[in-house]
Amino acid sequence: MDRVLEIGGLAAGFCGRLFVQSGYEVVRIETGSDDPAWVGSEAMAMFLHPGKHRLRTTDPGLIAELASHADIVVAQAQDAEGIEALGFDAWTAPVKASITPFGRTGPKRNWQATPNVLLAMGGYTNLMGDPDRAPLTLPGHYLEFQSGCLAFTAANACRLAAQRNVVDIGMLEVVMALSQFTTVMWHCSRVIRSRHGSDFYSVVPSNLFRCADGWVYMNIVPTFWDPFTVFLGRPELAIDDRFATNEKRMRNRDVLHDLIAEVLAPLTRTEIEQRVDECRIPLGVVQSFDDVLADPHLAVRDMWQTVETGDGRSPRSPRLPWRIHGERRPDLELAEPSPGDGRPPRARGGTPSRERWDRPYGLVAERGDDA
């Protein structure tokens, strides 16, 4: 497996997470200037960094030396100048990927932006929230993690093709590349989407409804309209001219939503699921996180791994969403970052390197070395 050097914030951290959970040797450089997280830094480290060798340093010579012995370098910075200041262009790693808000070229290359600003610039924020209220932004780290995922994919593609390459990822372009339905509607139909809360708007009914013990989301495309009327116990709606087509249902959405809300309000989620199964229509139950953790399907699929933190705690964390040849990788351990003047402690569950990355610094232990 390749040796990966990871430098930067949450996008680079998620990219490194994908590499280490795929069996690669990953060294993470921690400079003390990482991006703020929606959760505490300790919790984010438990999610992103188990299995990595973590080195705390700002020494450009040490970073360059590590980069020269890496197969892949993933570096994230606040702008193009930040990438250049790292010495990125001089590094000799075969594959180098940079992640910045606007990429390394163009008039905005040295603009700085937080993810919520980039989501607003890409049109996402304009679509989120209720129509008569201020727009909302996405919680969590959707943009950073998507950017890291694309860096992981591109770097792997270069290595599999046996090509030396430099990958330039602009996070604004990541937003645009993932906007799919909004972009298609504009370019193909000249339709500008707008905010409609939980109502998908162009396919009716597609909305969130309260039931007796929670919430359900109904997404009824035209193919399922007739069985949905049976689900509601109102089969006469199938021949009601107000709802004969999706276009008419759009015009009469408020009346239809009130009818659905009236039917669902006294029903429990279990009762709704039974009706759904009988009528063969799509429904998504809004689960609590306890429900997700207890999901028997995810348990069979071995979705959750235990992370050892060295202080007696063992939180659970998601595994990768793919498995090759049915291989199950071991649980990982979160190592404490070491200073840049010595060898970092080996994180249990990592893959021993084929050779030392850097003989003078001894940053990666050989097989069998109990660093």
Characterization of the model:
With about 375 residues, the protein is of the alpha/beta class. It is about 35% helix and about 15% strand. It has two domains: about 5-130 and about 140-180 and about 300-340, Rossmann fold; about 205-285, formyl-coa transferase, domain 3 (2-Layer Sandwich). A seven-stranded parallel sheet has the order 6-5-4-1-2-3-13, sandwiched between helices.
Number of strands: 13
Which strand order do you get reading across the main beta sheet? 6-5-4-1-2-3-13
Percentage of residues in helical conformation: 25-40%
**Which stretches are poorly predicted, pLDDT < 50 over at least 5 residues?**
342-356, 358-371
The CATH homologous superfamily name of the largest domain equals: Crotonobetainyl-coa:carnitine coa-transferase, domain 1
Q: Terminal Cα separation, in Å?
A: 20 Å
Radius of gyration: 25 Å
Question: What would CATH call the class of the largest domain?
Answer: Alpha Beta
Largest sheet report? 7 strands, parallel
What's the overall average pLDDT, rounded? 88
What is the succession of H and E elements? EHEHEHEHEHHHEHHEEHHHHEHHEEEE
For the record, the count of structural domains works out to 2
- Tell me the CATH topology of the largest domain: Rossmann fold
Tell me which CATH architecture of the largest domain applies here. Answer: 3-Layer(aba) Sandwich
What percentage of amino acids are in beta strands?
15-25%
